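Handout for the seminar on molecular recognition.
Each group receives one record of this type.
Step one: identify the two inputs.
Step two: read the structure output and locate the region that could contact tryptophan.
Step three: write two sentences on what you found, then compare them with the reference statements printed after the record.
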Amino acid sequence: MADPAASAQRRLSLHGQWSSRLAFVLAVSGSAVGLGNIWKFPYVAGQNGGGAFVLVYLLCVFAIGLPIMMAEILLGRRGRRNPVTTMGLLGREEGGSRQWRLVGLMGMLCGFLILSFYSVIAGWTLHYTVLAASDSFAGLAADGLGELFSGLVSNPVTLILWHTVFLIITTVVVARGVEEGLERAVRVMVPALILIMLALLAYSISFGGFQAGLEFLFRPDFSALTGAGVLAAMGQAFFSLSVGMGAVMAYGAYLPQEESIIKTSVAVVSADTAIALLAGMVIFPIVFANGLDPAEGPGLVFQTLPLALAKMPAGILVGTAFFILLAFAGLTSAISLMEPVVAWLVEAFSMRRSVAAMLAGGVTWALGLMTVFSFNLLADWQFLRGTLFDNIDYLTSNILLPAGGFLITIFAGWIMCANSSADELDATVGPAYRLWRFLARYVAPVAVLLVFLNAVGALG
Ligand code: TRP
């Protein structure tokens, strides 16, 4: 009983396991790759001056996000429960406190808030699927596409309709459970999305803004980067990798004991980053070739890509496929945002999975109205960081996820004994384990603190 390694070995998840390592890699990549890569990364990079932001983003991904992802998976697999129960269980087991479960609870709150706006944005991609299929971009120049986009977001009824559709689909998939729902949803989507992006890249190049676009994205101009920009880069790294709230921890609970956490994490983080950069390489050339503003904001993808789609052969087909795949990428991410809370309701309150999913879906739907109205009825209500949506986005990406990630890495690096973490990460790859432990104990927590302090101006 006193030996943590022995009791961890005996634990099994209530919800079954992934059928293979591939299934797990697919599920975690499905969580990571989503609107964050294609919708959010380009517009946040654009708002923060490009190159220098991208460089800081890459540093955050590999020095902070990657070790925290490994920590989440290893804690999840060791606890084999939802993030709240797992953190409490391991807290006690490792000689700390049961109150570590508060980290899991904070993650649940954060997940609700993220999913509430995520679903609204995913709704935009559903709407654009219909627009693409009905050839609605034909003959439109940049200003026409701008009007098309503002026409959509100014209409709360349309936004609520698509938000509802998207959340119902998410709820149904989550209700059906790990093996049936989650696994099947991911298989073809990521490769197909990459293929279409590569095709789009070819047409983006032909616009003539390629060089300007690449320079914006990859030539660091540090004078364009503020403390707030550095925080935004770190927040974007957490958001894009799905770390800091327990989503990856919940998935880790279903990972078979013999699979390598280190290899999986490196593969997922690399793929996620490559796709974000690819999206930037497609979008910014279009921005510069058409005299658009890189700091346009959340509408950026929707106002640029249709220009390339209109130009390419079979643009209707490619455009429709692109927006469907983007909605799918959003779906596999949304599932991972809902899974932790559903697993918690099932395990801690013995709720039926379907009931738990409907409850989570209902709460998220109501919260989503805040985002819907931020773009129309409440657009003029600005405080702190901007609209209500801007504030929810800032609170989750820039504060709650890094804070959650900080506590997770402190737990895995400092509270958990080295025997336990070495036991979960392949102890056979000695140098990789030592590198992880160094990043998890020193680099990641210190970096998060410095970025926070810098953003509030405490570092002068
Ligand atoms: N990473 C996803 C994206 O880039 C969004 C996401 C899914 C997420 N699960 C998460 C973000 C958990 C933070 C935490 O679109």
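Reference statements: The longest helix spans residues 315-349. The CA atoms of residues 82 and 158 lie 35 Å apart.
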